[in-house]
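We modelled the chain as a single entity of 108 amino acids. Its sequence is:
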Amino acid sequence: MKRIFGILCIAFMMMSCTSPMVGTWIQPQTSATQEEGFILHKDGSASSVNLDFIEFTAWEKDGDFLILNGFNNGSVKKEFSDTMKIESVSKTTLVLSQNGYRIEYNRK
């Protein structure tokens, strides 16, 4: 019985360590025909959602900042790192800001 309780405690601690940032984040678009955004995976990798020229590869949270790494796939493939301030994050909404510009994403 003690062993089962110990295993359950460890499993609960591992689940509670998952960042609230992990998940699929979509930007509300009124004029776009497709949803656009990104996926932050638990292992630190990242993926783009319907972003033609941007390929996210990794992410990290550093204090109040979200750092997204990836490639700009224009005429020349160029690596980038983008740092945005995390204004708020909840179960349903992520608000980021950068250079006075504020972007809201909804969890899908």
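As a brief sanity check on the tokenised model: Residues 47 and 56 are 5 Å apart (CA to CA). The first strand starts at residue 23 and ends at 27.
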